[in-house]
Amino acid sequence: MSRRALALALAVMAGSCQRAPPAPPALNSPAEVARLWPGQAPGTESWRGPEQGADAELPNLGKVHVVTNVTVPTISVFRPPAGQANGTGIVVVPGGAFRALPWDLDGLETARWLTRRGVTAFVLKYRVRPPGSSAPAGDGSFDGFARATAAARAIAVADAEQAMRVARAQARRLGVASSRIGMIGFSAGAMTTMLVSLDADPTVRPNFAVSLYGALLSDRAPPKDAPPVFVVAAQDDPQVPPARSVEIFDRWTKAGLPAELHIYRTGGHGFAFRAHQQPVYSWPAAFQAWLAAGGYLAPAGG
């Protein structure tokens, strides 16, 4: 597990693992929160216990609110201000090494950025549990991490695919075009996003995909109608080798699919949309330009 992921996990495991005190007012108030699955989420019927939350202090990022032991996955809908929605929606998939979710950093702050630009955000709270004594241990390498988290990653992918189904089913009611629903993922969430983008079933694939400091953990070739991708990483990322982001770009390019890649000299890992005094902080402007070039910021049908 990476140092960042370990900090996230330790934050929610510290002390008696009690819930964190009430958090300050959220950056956004969701219009609604819905369960992903009609009953117990498949494959984790034995998972029990309340969701846990705590604050972690992360280098260069400050305080981050973390949740874990998510046994009931949900999707939280954040809508743009009245009259500003443009008909685009994005499913937001937080990171956290498949053990915990940095809920404000990856989730709420992303929703705030998107809704200010007219995009409806569907923030996914997928199933995660803190590592136990029986959890597979990696060898400290990225490949070891990938092997150790294969089972947890499959659960995240199942929830992300279900989130796409829910978003498309509710699109018309929410004023979103079902053909303009993308997915953005951070770290583990980006690995999840890329796997969903490879799915053979077009009904669960996003219409466009965004990977921040992620990887493509599959040998499958992208489908001929795989979504265009926007890929971001930092050269000095200590957790996920930036070459993994280059690989995404290369595989899309070799398949003749649209892809855009941004590698910044410094920025580390886990920067998301939070402001830093680092070159990487120019990435949101590049992302906004990419969305605009794809027509995703113009009114649907306009």
Question: What's the gist of this structure?
Answer:
It contains 7 helices and 11 strands.
What topology emerges from the helices and strands here?
Blueprint: H1 3-13, E1 32-35, E2 52-58, E3 62-68, E4 74-78, E5 89-93, E6 101-102, H2 103-115, E7 120-125, H3 142-148, H4 150-174, E8 181-186, H5 188-197, E9 209-212, E10 229-234, H6 243-254, E11 259-264, H7 283-293
Parallel strand pairs: 5-7, 5-8, 8-9, 9-10, 10-11
Antiparallel strand pairs: 1-4, 2-3, 3-6, 4-7
Characterization of the model:
- There is one protein chain.
- With about 300 residues, the chain is α/β, with parallel strands linked by helices.
- It is built from seven helices and eleven strands.
- The strands form two sheets. Strands 1-4-7-5-8-9-10-11 form an eight-stranded mixed sheet, sandwiched between helices.
- Strand 8, helix 5 (about 190-195) and strand 9 (about 210) form a beta-alpha-beta unit.
- Helix 4 (about 150-175) packs across helix 5 (about 190-195).
- The radius of gyration is 18 Å and the shape is globular.
- The N and C termini lie far apart (about 45 Å).
- About 50% of the residues are buried.
